[in-house]
Design goal:
Length: about 160
């Protein structure tokens, strides 16, 4: 299976880079992982909804360049479906059984995802009703994908 993580913005903090590197290494025995970073747009303070929408659309254009027809696209959205770790593992396993061997997880920028990306999404996933820094979500997502593979393979994991 191939997992593609498409994200907006660059990681600056070393501790986050280290976490991403660690889970990338751990995942290498289960899947082919590709992480794609697209440029983010500067959001002015007190930007209007129209300006924010334009920013989301610009970032969305960059994301869509990497979305292929054979990808099952999972967008991270605050109003998406919340799953347990076991349910995410079941979803990943079911997708593999359905012949969907290329899963793309999409994490938007600080103001969310553009309309066209949301339309292309096959599944909206939420980790919480809380807001997390989008850079930190990369580490959290990779940890959960790793945990999912451990569950799928009947290997021990922390509960």
């Amino acid at each position: 299976m191939k997992i593609t993580l498409i994200t907006v913005g660059k990681i600056k903090e070393k501790y986050l880079k280290d976490g991403i590197a660690e889970y990338s290494k751990r995942l290498s025995r289960y899947c082919k992982l590709e992480i794609i970073e697209v440029a983010d747009e500067k959001t002015p303070d007190q930007a209007s909804e129209t300006v924010e929408e334009q920013i989301r659309d610009k970032e969305g254009e960059r994301i869509r360049k990497y979305l292929r027809d054979d990808m099952y696209v999972i967008t991270l959205e605050i109003n998406g479906k919340q799953l347990s770790s076991e349910e995410l593992a079941d979803k990943m396993a079911a997708l593999g059984l359905q012949g969907k061997s290329n899963i793309a997880f999409v994490i938007g920028g600080s103001i969310g995802l553009g309309r066209e990306v949301l339309k292309r999404s096959d599944y909206a996933l939420s980790f919480s009703k809380m807001t997390f820094p989008h850079q930190l979500m990369r580490v959290i997502l990779l940890e959960q994908v790793y945990r999912g593979y451990r569950i799928i393979n009947g290997e021990p994991y922390h509960k």
